[in-house]
Amino acid sequence: MIETITIFGGHSRDGEPEAVQRIELKMGDVVSIVGPTGSGKTTFINDIELFANGNTQTGRRILINGVLPPVEYRDNPSLNPIALITQHTTFLSDLPVLEFLTEHAGIRVLDKSLIEQMIADTLSFANQLTGEPIIPGVRMTELSGGQTRALLIADATIICDTPIVLLDEVENAGINRSRALELLRAYRKIFIFVTHDPRIALLSDYRIVMKGGSITDLLRTNEEERAFSHQVAKLDDLLAVMRDKIRFGERLTTHELEGFA
Ligand SMILES: Nc1ncnc2c1ncn2[C@@H]1O[C@H](COP(=O)(O)OP(=O)(O)O)[C@@H](O)[C@H]1O
Ligand SMILES: [Mg+2]
User: Fold this and answer.
1) E strands along the chain, which residues?
2) Fold of 1-81+163-219
3) Which of 10, 156, 186, 198 is the most exposed place for a label (fewest CB within 10 A)?
4) Whole-angstrom Cα distance, residue 223 to residue 201?
5) Of the bound ligands, which one is closest to the alpha carbon of residue 41?
6) Res 170: pLDDT
7) Which pLDDT belongs to residue 125?
8) Cβ of 37 less than 6 Å from ligand 1
9) Measuring from atom 14 of ligand 1, which residue has the nearest CA?
10) Which residues of the chain are modeled with pLDDT < 70?
11) Contact between residue 160 and residue 184 where contact means Cβ atoms under 8 Å apart
12) Cα–Cα distance for residue pair 39/215, rounded to 1 Å
């Protein structure tokens, strides 16, 4: 059972020691990684995925439950506790969605009687994240970017069921991010998101701040932020409605802002 991930800081791109030298993530934590383009967010996520041990360009080290992760994690994909959903994920598989999920579940899930329900749950989870429902008979390679992301997140959460899920830049993926977080919270995992979305950032337990390749700060969501996070959510919903109207060629009126003071 994985209970904690510990990250020991290395150095920035300029070789300076990182300001934050130790972070301990606990099972159930939802964490955002923030920082401008080029600040090292993807590199940080990759360090975790690689179980860095001073052997990457950052010099960071990762411990699982306080000790070096067992080598099987890396050698045996079915034992790896980490699912990484990258910015540029494409499926190599040309199988129809349903066959792909069935095949994948056949490898990952030991109790075969659970597979049918798990696949149904995975599709339902994915379809709550994407505006365009996934047709089970469609080939994986024909899914849109948003559908692909949604299916990967659902697959990682339900079929792989890894205790740690890393998500790089969910922003432009065309998925319902707050619904994703809501659904993910129902599973006890460590979630690490790269995001600048205020709504998601305020829903996470804390944010890891990156600059120049280095972890410069750790901001726990404070009382003030928590207190107005529902207004941020409301504003985000308003913007989503306006975005949809624009998408469908409609005009916007000042009425769109009614109810938001
Ligand atoms: N600590 C570090 N030391 C050396 N190079 C780094 C470090 N962190 C990031 N880099 C390099 O900086 C560049 C930008 O990092 P990246 O993780 O892609 O940023 P972001 O995802 O925030 O846009 C990459 O080429 C990466 O290899
Ligand atoms: Mg990046």
Assistant:
1) 4-8, 22-26, 30-34, 61-64, 82-85, 164-167, 190-194, 206-211, 214-220
2) Rossmann fold (3.40.50)
3) 186
4) 14
5) 1
6) 64
7) 93
8) yes
9) 38
10) 87, 89-92, 170-174, 261
11) no
12) 9
